User: Fold this.
Amino acid sequence: MSHLKRTTRIHAPLTEVYRLAHDPKHWSDWYVGISDEANLESPGGAPRSLMVGAPFPLTQRVVEDRLSGGQAHWHSKVDGPVERVAVTRACCLLMLSGESDWSYRTVNGDTELTVIMDYRVPSAMIERPEDRQVVDRLEAQCLERSLENLKRYCETAH
Assistant:
């Protein structure tokens, strides 16, 4: 299991940050690699999205979702039915199953957001020991850029 933890401070009210980060219709506005999807509901009502233009068949189950006072918390479990999805002949996306924990708190009128991600790198993708480090580095960069995007997105008027 791999583990990431990142914290950022956003100069916007907690309720606004939570609303924008929490709504899957806005994920493509700030989360790196997620494309717009006109229909966020797939057959059976499970949320779905596109990742770099390819269907990304993940099931995201929300375990906790609460907003009260100056704090909020959102926790989900993610399962992929396959270990990877072909985008092109030369590009595959990893299906990283695991858990995601987003904690928000008000600090001097700003929002402090801490994201913890625990995920499994598919064993089929690990041919050499350094492969896991490459995947972990890419996941860390993706999360960091996504949080930078979310910060910019929330700090501009909508």
In short: Residues 129-155 form the longest helix (27 residues).
